[in-house]
Amino acid sequence: VPDPLASLREEIALANRILVHEGILDAFGHVSARHPTDPSRFLLSRYLAPELVEPDDIREFNVADAEPVRAGERHYSERVIHSCIYEARPDVMAVCHHHAPAVLAFAIAKAELVPVFHLGAAMGEKVAYWDSQDDFGDTSLLVTKIAEGRSLARALGRHSTVLMGRHGATVAGNSVREVAFRTVYSCRNAELQIQAKLLGQVYSLTPGEARMAGSHNTRSGPLGRAWDSWVRRLHKAGDFPKTGATKTRKRPARRAAKLSLAQKRRGKRSRKN
Amino acid sequence: VPDPLASLREEIALANRILVHEGILDAFGHVSARHPTDPSRFLLSRYLAPELVEPDDIREFNVADAEPVRAGERHYSERVIHSCIYEARPDVMAVCHHHAPAVLAFAIAKAELVPVFHLGAAMGEKVAYWDSQDDFGDTSLLVTKIAEGRSLARALGRHSTVLMGRHGATVAGNSVREVAFRTVYSCRNAELQIQAKLLGQVYSLTPGEARMAGSHNTRSGPLGRAWDSWVRRLHKAGDFPKTGATKTRKRPARRAAKLSLAQKRRGKRSRKN
Amino acid sequence: VPDPLASLREEIALANRILVHEGILDAFGHVSARHPTDPSRFLLSRYLAPELVEPDDIREFNVADAEPVRAGERHYSERVIHSCIYEARPDVMAVCHHHAPAVLAFAIAKAELVPVFHLGAAMGEKVAYWDSQDDFGDTSLLVTKIAEGRSLARALGRHSTVLMGRHGATVAGNSVREVAFRTVYSCRNAELQIQAKLLGQVYSLTPGEARMAGSHNTRSGPLGRAWDSWVRRLHKAGDFPKTGATKTRKRPARRAAKLSLAQKRRGKRSRKN
Amino acid sequence: VPDPLASLREEIALANRILVHEGILDAFGHVSARHPTDPSRFLLSRYLAPELVEPDDIREFNVADAEPVRAGERHYSERVIHSCIYEARPDVMAVCHHHAPAVLAFAIAKAELVPVFHLGAAMGEKVAYWDSQDDFGDTSLLVTKIAEGRSLARALGRHSTVLMGRHGATVAGNSVREVAFRTVYSCRNAELQIQAKLLGQVYSLTPGEARMAGSHNTRSGPLGRAWDSWVRRLHKAGDFPKTGATKTRKRPARRAAKLSLAQKRRGKRSRKN
User: What pTM did the predictor assign?
Assistant: First the structure.
């Protein structure tokens, strides 16, 4: 009896922790997913540092206004980043908002982030740029109003990644895993682009290469291979989120995380040790 | 029966260890707080590397002369950094002195450190600069005399952060948590500013943005969210300081660290595992 | 009754994990070795992230066409990188393909990677350069066809290391240990060359120095000293691969990894603790 | 019944592991000390990666010819680096030879390494420079002959640190702790100098400041504070070397490492947990 909603909540908690563990998120930033059966809702943690998020902390919000379905708790102030992208892009199933240093450097220098290696092409052929100053003048830079979220979503357009001037970046995709992959490898790409610039000229991928490499690397094979290694690191670090009910703890954990065969095998072994 | 002094000593020990764990302090640097009920005194560890500080190591010192209330032990030679800021700034409740690499680079290059992202605005709209050479000529660079401490406090003025040429930085705030947050995010800001400069021009926050972003990010919500994640990392690394008496160890630990709800919940769970 | 094939499979699993642990491989990249008794075959893991590879995952492939000896599983798409180098270079007994950041920066900037310290000379006096765009135009950048693999092998020529434009690098050697050493120290060399360039001019080794230093550092002494320290780190991190059959677990593990005397002694001690 | 020779062997093993843990040494590099009662001899590990060195691995060598007092084992080929400095400098009681990246970058760019912060002054007011090419032309860059060691010692002169072109650095001092401190903070200084250069001009310490700051920071207080924190990290990481005989294991360990009061207290507590 698989429960897609429970599975997705566990996957969101996992993605939060993976992105902390891979150096992308710190106490701030968040990962969401569109509700698996009701496209007018999305799932996001309540107000918590990402490394503390458990599946039980994932709440439902309305795409229309970013408000929680059930009120009474504190929530992230930047929920409109997520809701407005789900509103504008029916194809988007997951969103990550982050402040990873290498990508943020481009958002401070207004420098163009371009794919410089095959895995970096996962961020999309072109990265969009948005700055709250342009439409809204002086703000706290936080994107908290629907008008701000819609402005950001317009800047994202059909792309997958949008830099937010002096603030961070937002990444969209058709699954939590794709968004995690896209987020991690856009950061690796940014680090590489800075280092290559220090050495001289940056030779980026051609549009054709970026299209083919991006398409190849967001297939289930590479996504699963990366996800398996990130999950293993979480396990080893003791950072795996709580999954399933306490009394049936082991089985739901395996199911929910959608572990690949390789991961399952590893899991069994480590339990033996 | 809450004991604000005991709580504060535990929070100071925590902040010392958090700042080591986040890469800000090494064997040197220190965190202090003004005495919770006697504003003419402040609390600071005796002579120890920050990662070794326990609540029992926190001593009381006089703001007037930086001398310990009870003599007989070795103390940091730079206590006047703390005492002279408490003397000049009645609003300041906590101080951190550090030599974090990214911030120190600005204090070696005499380069202006400016807010380049919303969280960096927590360091204040403007960062002050002081160099011992200007008033005192050749010294060991350590700030050990009251005249030196007062010169530094004058340079800090109404700001929150002062760079100390070829030496480090000192950060002031209205709570230990605010000072920890300000210290961590001024370092992240410095790292980002260096990386952005490598890419070309640095587009910093406008004064209005810096004011609004700084004000937002030093509220209890963001401070608590960051503190919770730092505390969790300490716990996981086995670096949490000893708290409370041995026989009632678990409960005072939870109280003293002023754990948020999220943190408390996490703590309970990890105890179950 | 030593089993050279079993030993080699264990050494390949170890090398995969070592190169992850030393920051060279992430979820992508792979290490292979020529079959110890049949030079027309080579050994490579099935489709897995390197940090998950166990000796049991190592499969046999034909040098002639990069196809697995036994079909029915998913495999890396870039097997021709390995097969075509074994085909062109009978002296090569092991190959590593990776995307380590420092080396990749040179492959993005088309900058010459040169030996700048004695240990860096292990990568060879000269590093070759290849770009898929030159012979094949727009591709996904992955090297998946025999014609692509042969083009890469021609660029490698008699050298030990070839940069792959906007993609990564491939390293060849006469043993798994030599390839691991060459891979690690070419990355350290790349990091140093970037840092030295930031300081001004880069003074590299003369051809004579590079030849002598490269020859010295790929002897069994230095290779074993480095391997011992990498193996120790894996052990400490709990990342050592499973070795031997379960019932005779301890002894085959020691044999298979070809632990040096020093390593054996350490192993015994840690078992006592 | 203190045994100064046993204590010193334990301190050398500790320093080897500390310098690995602090990112200075990898599989290569070594730390030695002059024999505590016979100035014509010095103590150095046999041929091992530094993180594997135990007190039992420390051997005695003659200052006159760098040969071991008892033959029959493999030793580091660069022993003359140590012997020739002990020969030329009766005041030197300990030596470290390393290839730490930040310092090595200066030895590749022939850039002047200067004290840029108070702790960096521990490396000495002036850092000497030597290149094997000048006196010996093309070599493997390893310093293995007495003539090479004496040339290096002449370049070191009365200074504490000598850069070795395209190779590394060697650091001398009057105790193992001073050499460890000097080594760590020369590397931190090098990292800072590179970062400050990226920001613009580097404002270094004046000669007077460097003299006063260097003198202050190599006193027993700062040396002990840093040593205590490094030892604690080793303990926590499970990297503390074996000390004393097995049956009296706990007490000799505490004595031998010359733990400060703070460290002793910490040790007792962690044993309780």
Answer: 0.91
